[in-house]
Amino acid sequence: MYSLSGRLNTIAFNTLLTLGVLAGMNFLACYPFDFLGHAPRQPTIVTPFKIRDFDVFVKDNYINEDALSFTFDFKVDLRPLFNWNTNLVFAYISCEYNTTKSSFNRVTIWDQRVPRDDEKNHVISLQAEWPEYYLTDINKLLRDQDVTCYLQWEQMPIAGANYGGKMSLGTFRTPKNYISNSRRKYAPGPEGREYNY
Amino acid sequence: MAAEAPAPFVHPSTKEGWTDNLYRYVNEMDFEGQQLADKIVSRSMNLCAVIAFIVGYINQKFSYTVYIMLACMFTLMVVAGPGWGALYKKRPLKWRKTEIEKKYQVVAGNNEKKHK
User: Fold this and answer.
1) Which residues contact A102 (CB under 8 A, 6 or more apart)?
2) Mean pLDDT of B96-105
3) What are the TM regions of this chain, as residue ranges (chain A) (predicted)?
4) Cα distance between residue A75 and residue B70, in whole Å
5) In the prediction, which pLDDT does A16 show?
6) Inter-chain contact A84–B42, Cβ cutoff 8 Å?
7) Are residues A71 and A160 in the same domain?
8) Which residue among A75, B9, B62, B64 sits deepest, i.e. has the most Cβ atoms within 10 Å of its Cβ?
């Protein structure tokens, strides 16, 4: 403290140390409510997940697999996941299905990163949205199967490790017969559509 | 020929300009002043941390906490950084006068003393 540079250095480093301690206290103030509570935070569903129609269900003889695509409606409120320790929430919808020959398949059909300052994306409302990838089966056994959909999210906090959760959205049944006859396109939906990156 | 007393030798370092005085004013502090600066910094940093945490928790925004701490840091850099005279220079050190030994003193017309 005997020189100007020493004093300024002391003040700056004390501030940095205090900010570190405050970030640790920030994490401790949020940790019990996210994990140890009997009701962990979950987003609230406003409109349930509903399939509008199946627009592509093809037995692709070029790639030798089944491919399924559909349009869906969904509206969810992600605001319960945001506390003062949240930096980013990555929300995605995934479909899981089993066939008689393959025991576990999971396809992510929609995802979005929702930062903390992006207020208008805290409520996600999708209408007639196509998935990002086809639901495929290499053994061509996708007719008349049960498909379960889950909403999963990963939370990236300001201080602390990433963590996530999962929520079931319901089950739907694939059609009993193929719908379209031609070879499928590269990606579901119309060509040149806007992706939500 | 009466030898006139040569001007006493004055080293340039004893003559201080305004930049030297400014630097000394900003940089130097008494010991009591340093203790006071240390107290000011540590106590106001603790108080500011508590206020910043409470404000951030109530509003659920960590950016408020960071902004309050940065404001505290810049205020402290102005208050406790330079050596302000009113706070930090109340009990200056008392320096003794310089004493040069007799055999090194420069006296007029005494060149014979060197040939001892």
Assistant:
1) A137, A138, A139, A141
2) 77
3) 12-33
4) 40
5) 96
6) no
7) yes
8) B62
Work out the pLDDT band at B85, boundaries 50, 70, 90: confident
What is chain B's percent helix, strand, coil content, to nearest 5?
A: 60, 0, 40
Question: Do A157 and A61 reside in the same domain of the chain?
Answer: yes
Q: Kindly determine whether residue A19 and residue B69, on different chains, have CB atoms separated by under 8 Å.
A: yes
ipTM: 0.76
pLDDT band at A34 (very low <50, low <70, confident <90, very high): low
Packing angle, helices B62-79 and B31-59, rounded to 10: 160
> Which residue in the set A1, A2, A22 is minimally distant from B53, CB to CB?
A22
> Using the beta-carbon criterion (under 8 Å), do A1 and B61 form an inter-chain contact?
no
Helix (H, G, I), strand (E, B) or coil at A3: coil
Closest alpha carbon within chain B to A18 = B49
Chain B residue with CA closest to A3: the answer is B27
Q: Please provide the distance, in angstroms rounded to a whole number, between the alpha carbons at the two ends of chain A.
A: 52
Q: Is the dihedral of CA B86, B88, B89, B91 positive or negative?
A: positive
Whether the full predicted model's pTM is greater than 0.80, yes or no, is: no
Print the domain residue range for A93: 44-173
CB within 8 Å: B69 and A25: no
A chain contacts of residue B65, beta-carbon cutoff 8 Å = 19, 22, 26
Buried b (16+ CB within 10 A) or exposed e, B53-92: beebbeeeebebbbebbeebbeebbeebbbbbeebbeeee
Spatial separation of the C-alpha atoms in residues B83 and B91, rounded to whole Å = 13
Say if A188 falls within a structural domain: no
Interface of B with A in 33-52 (CB under 8 A): 34, 37-38, 41-42, 45, 48-49, 52
Q: How far apart are CA A118 and CA A103, in angstroms?
A: 39
